[in-house]
Amino acid sequence: MQKITREDCIQLDSQDVLADFRNEFNLPANDIYMCGNSLGAMPKKAMAKVEQVMLDQWGASLIKSWNIHGWFNLSQSIGDKLATTIGADVGEVVVTDATGINVFKVLAAALTLNPERKKIVMEGSNFPTDNYTAQGLVKLLGNQHEIVFAETEQGILDAIDDNVAVVCLTQVHYKSGRLLDMKSITEKTQECGAISVWDLCHSGGALPIDLNACNVDFAIGCTYKYYNGGPGSPAFVFCAKRHQGKALQPLTGWYSHDAPFAFERDYRPASNINQMLSGTQGILSLAVSEIGIDIASRADVNEIRNKSLNLSDLFMRLIEQECAEFNFELITPTERARRGSQVAMSHENGYAIMQCLIAQGVMGDFRAPDTLRFGLTPLYLRFVDVWDAVAKLKDIMQQGTWQEAVYNQKHAVT
């Protein structure tokens, strides 16, 4: 195989149909940002949006903003935009609350559809919030339910049977970047009479998703990764229309009432997607999240996916070409159809190596015990960035500069 050069990467950038989107983000001039799978970059229009909401809306219009600036329906209007990126219809998505809260909502709602069944299938190595939230819900319900943890896609399929109430899975694994087959798993789930819940935190905005084509029941996700909504920006909930008004979530705040401004003593659930809301929204973060969602909805998701796969192919090939002697072990699947938009690899000195990379301007991240993660966000990462990141990694390994970080870690004052 012909050796890849930096000039090859520059040529790929010159042909990139998504290249102009990079100009919409505020990126440090001297850093290579490869952590968009954890926190997306800041859109340049975000600050102006904050000023608009703070000064023109809250400052000038005050409480009138709930009506004249559409604050009260902001979760729904932004949700309709986000819906276009995940294969959902208008009226099936709301942007609201935090991911963990939304996991609680949809898992509780899903269990009401199968009250006689007591098994929940999940992936044991999920991002902990999903598992912890499910465990908390099970305890709240009197420990009547059993969580069955599987570790592989085949293990998940094998665990789904006629005793399962809900299958709750993350589409792209947060650590390895492995992509589950949503369609086949959902089909098996529903053949067995169970309800599907999908976590899209590491796939939404990064690859084509078609919830309705896969007949998914519920989904949740965050907006601060590939949607670039900002730190702690609100999450989202998808509820298929066939379940709206039937599968009710239990955090029944006034926003989810059928007539919120009637101020009735007793709860009457909204019969539409509004029932997935709870209380008053954080308008500032909600409004800012719309900027990144707008960008994602304008980009062609198939072009995003194609560039993502090409970036990860390049990264993997360069690790083999430039760093084969340094004992990195690839964790992310090499098959294009089996991975999301990141590359993860392990090394016994992974923490120290990542600290050195960050110090030299390559911002990836580390996950215990030994995983280095590199997010590949197609809207602003260039092919030449991948080349330069691997070149810096090679230099760190050749020079042994990572050993100082090991020394500092071992001798840190606690």
Word description of this protein:
Homodimer. Keywords: Hydrolase, Pyridine nucleotide biosynthesis, Pyridoxal phosphate. Pathway: Amino-acid degradation; L-kynurenine degradation; L-alanine and anthranilate from L-kynurenine: step 1/1; Cofactor biosynthesis; NAD(+) biosynthesis; quinolinate from L-kynurenine: step 2/3. It catalyses: 3-hydroxy-L-kynurenine + H2O = 3-hydroxyanthranilate + L-alanine + H(+); L-kynurenine + H2O = anthranilate + L-alanine + H(+). It comes from Thalassotalea psychrophila. By secondary structure, the protein is α/β, with parallel strands linked by helices. Helices cover 38% and strands 14% of the residues. It is built from 13 helices and 15 strands. A seven-stranded mixed beta sheet has the order 4-10-9-8-7-5-6, sandwiched between helices. Strands 11-12-15-14 form a four-stranded antiparallel beta sheet. α2 packs across α9, α4 packs parallel to α9 and α5 packs across α6. The longest helix has 23 residues. It is globular. The model has no long low-confidence stretch (mean pLDDT 96).
